[in-house]
Design goal:
The complex is a heterodimer of chains A (335) and B (502).
Chain A: E1 27-28, E2 38-45, H1 49-65, E3 68-74, H2 80-92, E4 97-100, H3 109-117, E5 122-125, E6 136-139, H4 142-159, E7 168-174, H5 180-196, E8 201-203, E9 208-209, H6 214-227, E10 231-236, H7 239-252, E11 258-262, H8 266-273, E12 278-284, H9 286-301, E13 310-312, E14 315-319, H10 326-334
Parallel strand pairs in A: 2-3, 2-4, 4-5, 5-6, 6-13, 7-8, 7-9, 7-10, 10-11, 11-12
Antiparallel strand pairs in A: 1-3, 12-14
Helix pairs in contact in A: 1-9, 4-5, 6-7, 7-8
Chain B: H1 2-13, H2 15-83, H3 88-95, E1 103-110, E2 115-116, H4 119-128, H5 130-135, E3 140-142, E4 146-147, E5 154-164, E6 168-177, H6 178-185, E7 195-200, E8 205-210, E9 220-222, H7 223-226, H8 235-246, E10 251-258, E11 261-269, E12 276-283, H9 284-332, H10 342-354, E13 359-366, H11 369-376, H12 378-396, E14 400-406, E15 409-415, H13 419-434, E16 437-440, E17 445-448, E18 451-458, H14 465-481, E19 486-489
Parallel strand pairs in B: 18-19
Antiparallel strand pairs in B: 1-2, 1-6, 3-5, 4-5, 5-6, 7-8, 7-12, 8-9, 10-11, 11-12, 13-15, 13-18, 14-15, 16-17
Classes of the chains: A alpha/beta (335), B alpha+beta (502).
């Protein structure tokens, strides 16, 4: 089982910090057969669990639909300049279609427009670009994902027996204050909570931000639990903080606290598996993003245009109740 | 006189110059520091006030843009009401094909929430529960921004109520690119400084319309996280500001600091977008940076001015110093011969007597000087005086002081030198003076120059200057009586019949 990593947290900057990173050559993901369409996949990060799942989706689609899939990417999520070079290289190598997870939604926009206007289908995955010159984008609607996290929190608190009149608080731990992904998940959580949670169930105003520092995150979580005796819910917006709150809750034996986080890790897995705790996590469907991306690219090359440009690939909520469901198990398996 | 001479010495040593210069510099630098400090304080006060005003203006501009869009939707709805179509299907056939640069699509919602639009838009409406917002239109309501499935871009939808088939109510849904609103938010100046959000009152969710980070543009966030960096002491102010928003106040402002930067923040309620406000934030440094340029100009000007002042002070001081030196010399020396004048001699002699065990005072008269003036003119007389003074200085300045008392009278005071040596020098002087020749070539006249001198000794002849003068004058008188061209040491009780010493 692979661990799922957060996809695009807090890495959106204008200028690459590692401009001298070597360019990674494209490698074929499946057997190259002459006469088949050549699809080029460019991801944000190579050799990360999250992105490996996405690459696997593209490889499977290549096998399933009979096309050659080539893959490359960058070493960090800010290296849009190397992505620019990879895009040029893909075009010069004769790409029939390109699937891209853009490192920068603004810096890469003009290059995407250029390739799209030259007649090469461009499919975006995971992150959308600041242009409408692409065929379709498969990504998670993080606002919606935040909605689902809040819905899960409310349901689990109700399941635990907390009444609407009972006063309780919910704490939030985020991994970054600048990531658009995290901000949208947080906004989605607040949006659903405001509309649906009982008035006496309060989100603690001080949102804890560990800025990627796991030790700090553990301290902040411990402080939340100590200072708020009525705290019965903890929400984390991405993988790192989810691990932190899962660990802290397990260490302190807080079985009266609902934990809702993102992505799949050993820490949250243990908590979900245990009948003594109340934990859930939200999984993205990055495998589906690239799988669908390859399939759509081939359809476009066959002359079928897409009627939409944005498709929310959705999320799956995993908790103790549905852990053994085949769909959930299948998703966990590829993660 | 003593003070004046002291001043002269003081000036000669240059202390006054540096003290004056450094005093001016210190005052000037102090004034600049005060000016800059005051300027900074004023800028800060001004910035806080002005940034609040700018927030108000931008907020008003955003509200007006939304109102303009709302008016457009309402006008379209009014036009549909005028047409009084039989059914919404007919209305939809009329409007569905209409698009413009800014309008993405047009759809309809009936009183029961049934949708007349493309399938992808129906999905969006279901997902975002936009029917609920449509039914709030009275006459107009605006949705929160959402991402269009068909276009992949952020959009907003305006709803406007209209009538069809006489009494039925329908809701026109006009979807705009969210960038339309962002363009309205743009300001030519301070583009990267002003942050503009739409803020949901209940959830504190915000959507960036404009700001320094273009990546966040159109994206969602939450004010609690966005404002989590506010310095602890300002958090109550922010909470109070948000409380006013929750209480339904139409507008309110707050000022707080994040680190060292002060921010002004204003919200104003959007009437056509229930539950939403426009929030504008600006760092006061945005204005300070502009004012800093102005401040730097002023400081540069002041330093140039300072340099000019230093140069002017130097020039004026040097001029004054030279004048003072000339005036000082004029008050001490005889301007014609360069030897001390009478007053300076009297002051100097007092000091000399105070430090001497013995001294000799000599009174000189140039013999028949009046005749020289009368015969050869005053220029020749002046030349003679200069030549005579020069000879006296060459012999006696090493041992004492030489002065001109007036006219052709000179007084010399020497100390700690034996009388014999004085006499020897007088003999030599007499010889030299005789060698001075004044002649008038036209008249063929030749005039022999000589002097008469009387000498008194301190302290044997007298113990003060007045007494010595009397004694020397007495000896001189005798020399003159005896036919001039000689000198005589004063001897008590001596008569005019006695011959001069030489």
């Amino acid at each position: 089982m692979l661990l799922m990593m957060c996809s695009c947290a807090g890495k959106e900057k204008n200028v690459s910090e590692k401009q001298d990173e070597p360019l990674r050559e494209f490698t074929a993901l499946n057997e190259v057969v002459d006469g088949r369409k050549d699809i080029y996949l460019i991801t944000k990060v190579i050799d990360s669990n999250y992105w490996n799942v996405l690459v696997e989706g593209a490889r499977s689609a290549g096998d399933a639909f009979g096309c050659n899939v080539y893959f490359s990417g960058t070493n960090n999520e800010m290296d849009w300049e190397n992505q620019l070079k990879l895009l040029d290289q893909a075009v010069s190598l004769g790409a029939d279609a390109i699937i891209l997870a853009p490192d920068d939604s603004i810096e890469l926009a003009s290059k995407i427009e250029e390739i799209y206007s030259s007649g090469i289908p461009v499919i975006l995955v995971d992150t959308i670009a600041n242009t409408d010159s692409f065929d379709i984008c498969y990504m998670t609607d993080n606002l919606e994902a935040g909605n689902k996290a809040a819905k899960e929190m409310i349901e689990k608190l109700s399941d635990m027996g907390f009444s609407e009149d009972e006063e309780l608080t919910v704490g939030i731990l985020v991994g970054s204050g600048t990531s658009q992904t995290i901000n949208e998940r947080l906004a989605g959580f607040y949006q659903y909570w405001t509309d649906n949670a009982p008035d006496s169930w309060i989100i603690i105003k001080d949102i804890q931000n560990c800025n990627g520092d796991m030790e700090l995150g553990a301290d902040l979580t411990a402080s939340l639990l100590k200072e708020h005796k009525d705290l019965h819910g903890l929400f984390a917006t991405n993988n790192g903080p989810t691990k932190v709150i899962a660990n802290t809750v397990a260490e302190k034996g807080c079985n009266d606290v609902v934990v809702v986080g993102f992505d799949y890790s050993d820490e949250i897995s243990k908590l979900i598996s245990s009948p003594d705790y109340h934990a859930s996590t939200i999984l993205q469907r990055q495998y589906y993003m690239s799988y669908q991306g390859v399939e759509t690219a081939l359809e476009i090359l066959d002359g079928n245009q897409t009627s939409i440009k944005f498709e929310d690939t959705g999320v799956i909520v995993v908790n103790h109740d549905n852990l053994t469901d085949p769909e959930v198990q299948a998703l966990i398996e590829v993660n | 006189m003593k003070n004046k001479k002291g001043d002269l010495d003081y000036i000669k040593k240059g202390h006054s110059y540096y003290i004056t210069l450094f005093s001016c510099l210190a005052i000037f630098i102090g004034a600049i520091i005060m000016l800059i400090t005051g300027f900074n304080r004023l800028i800060t006060q001004h910035d806080v006030h002005l940034s609040g005003e700018i927030c108000n203006l931008v907020s008003e501009k955003m509200s007006n843009s939304l109102m303009f869009m709302a008016d457009s939707a309402r006008n379209m709805a009014d036009a549909l009401t005028e047409q009084n179509c039989r059914s919404l299907d007919v209305v939809y056939d009329t409007v569905s094909d209409y698009t413009s640069g800014r309008i993405v699509s047009i759809g309809l919602v009936d009183e029961d929430g049934n949708l007349y639009m493309s399938d992808s838009e129906k999905n969006e409406f279901e997902k975002m529960n936009l029917q609920k917002t449509a039914l709030l239109a009275d006459p107009v309501s605006i949705s929160a921004p959402y991402r269009s499935t068909r276009l992949g871009q952020p959009v907003i939808t305006l709803f406007s109520k209209f009538k069809y088939n006489d009494s039925h109510t329908g809701y026109l849904c006009v979807t705009y690119f969210f960038s339309t609103l962002q363009e309205a938010a743009n300001t030519e100046s301070l583009t990267n400084e002003i942050e503009i959000w739409l803020m949901n009152v209940e959830s504190a969710n915000i959507i960036q319309c404009a700001g320094s980070d273009p990546h966040a543009s159109g994206g969602w966030a939450n004010a609690y996280l966005k404002m989590s960096d506010i310095n602890r002491e300002y958090k109550p102010a922010f909470d109070a500001w948000y409380e006013r928003m929750l209480n339904g106040e139409p507008a309110a402002s707050v000022s707080y600091m994040i680190g060292d930067v002060r921010y002004s923040q204003v919200y104003s309620v959007i009437k056509s977008m229930p539950g939403w406000c426009v929030v504008v934030r600006i760092p006061s440094t945005a204005l300070s940076e502009t004012m800093d340029t102005f401040k730097n100009y002023i400081i540069s000007f002041l330093f140039i001015f300072l340099n000019l002042v230093v140069i002017v002070i130097s020039v004026v001081f040097n001029y004054w110093k030279r004048e003072t030196r000339i005036l000082g010399q004029l008050s001490v020396n005889d301007p014609l011969t360069g030897v001390l004048n009478r007053r300076a001699f009297e002051l100097s002699s007092e000091k000399l007597f105070a430090h001497s065990k013995d001294a000799s005072i000599m009174f000189f008269d140039i013999d028949y000087f009046k005749q020289v003036n009368d015969t050869f003119g005053h220029d020749t007389g002046d030349k003679l005086l200069k030549a005579f003074a020069g000879i006296l200085k060459s012999y006696f300045s090493k041992y004492g002081i030489v002065s001109r008392y007036g006219g052709d009278e000179f007084v010399v005071l020497v100390h700690d030198i034996p009388s014999g040596q004085v006499s020897d020098m007088l003999d030599k002087i007499r010889h030299e003076v005789h060698s001075i020749r004044i002649s008038d070539d036209k008249k063929g006249e030749d005039f022999k120059i000589s002097f008469s001198a009387g000498i008194a000794k301190y302290p044997t002849d007298a113990a003060d200057l007045t007494g010595l003068q009397v004694c020397a004058d007495s000896a001189l008188y005798i020399v003159k009586q005896m036919g001039r061209d000689g000198y005589r040491w004063y001897k008590q009780g001596s008569e005019a019949s006695e011959a001069p010493d030489q």
